[in-house]
Amino acid sequence: MMLHRNQETNSTSCEWIISRKELSQQDEKGLFSFVDYRGELFHYQLTGNSASIRTIFPDILHYLNHFWLLLPDSVQEQQIFWSQFYSLYSTNYLDLIDSDHNLACMRYFKTLLAENAPLPPDFKLLDYGCGPGLSVQVFEKQHLVGYDNNPTMLAEAAKQGLEVIYKEDFDNIQSCSFDGGFACYVLHMAIPETDIINLARAVKINGVLVANYYKDLGMERVTSLLEKLGFEGQKVDVQERRFGSVYIYRKHPLFYSSQ
To answer: What is the rounded distance in angstroms from the CA atom of residue 238 to the CA atom of residue 219?
Structure first.
């Protein structure tokens, strides 16, 4: 389910709409929809102010300052949800986010990588979930390779001059091909386990991944997966809480020497 802000007003008492319909190309942009488990088509609409919405739906997620989201319970359903969400909003993603905030987060990641990763002069970093390629404004292009599960985002990143790899290449990524990597505001989106495995495989021994978690979503799941894949996770000091929970993951040499 998704709650979408009424763009005709701009106050805290504005109307919010919750909509369930079958997703199809006939639907208006911005409306999510689906059929229930019996195959019946349902349409729901609820209006109220943001305080009442939070009261009715305590687990609701305020997202990108434009949406109220109620995520499905299972990881598999969340993956479908996020895929559909960004299939609708990838073309105007930059209009929805606070780009300055995201760039500040990447600059912080750049500092963490410099302090914690043994980077050679010709290092390569993997920007997992690169979106439309904002990282080229923070990192030197020759040190970056981007990947995103959304083809529209990936195409835009390529237009920005970011070297990108596509799904087939990412699924067959070579072991230890990157000195490190980062995922900025990505891992909350129920990332497929196969992607985590590919990402872990791509990083060199002693290499570092830096990532943050919006509202701590997915934090325990991804951290557990990475630890099983030989990474040691360390939560960064809470003084940078404005970027959510930030983690540094190091690929531990002892784990791989025993394989």
So the answer is: 15
What pLDDT digit, counting tens, does each position of 47-71 carry?
566 676 677 777 878 788 777 777 8
Tokens representing residue 149 in the block: 């599960």
CA distances from 167 to 162, 186, 195 (A): 16, 16, 10
Inter-CA distances, 91 with 30, 211, 241, Å: 12, 24, 29
DSSP conformational letter for 189 = S
CB contact burial 2-32 (16+ within 10 A = b; e otherwise) = bbbbeeeeeeeeeebbbbbbbeeeeeeeeeb
Which residue in 236, 243, 195 sits closest to 215, CA to CA? 243
CATH for 99-257, among 3.40.190.10, 3.40.50.150, 3.30.1300.10, 3.40.190.290?
3.40.50.150
Would strands 178-183 and 144-147 be described as parallel, antiparallel, or unpaired? unpaired
The pTM for the full model equals: 0.82
pLDDT in tens, 181-196: 999 999 999 999 999 9
Two tokens, residue 89: 């909003």
Helical pair 193-202 and 219-228, crossing angle rounded to 10 deg? 50
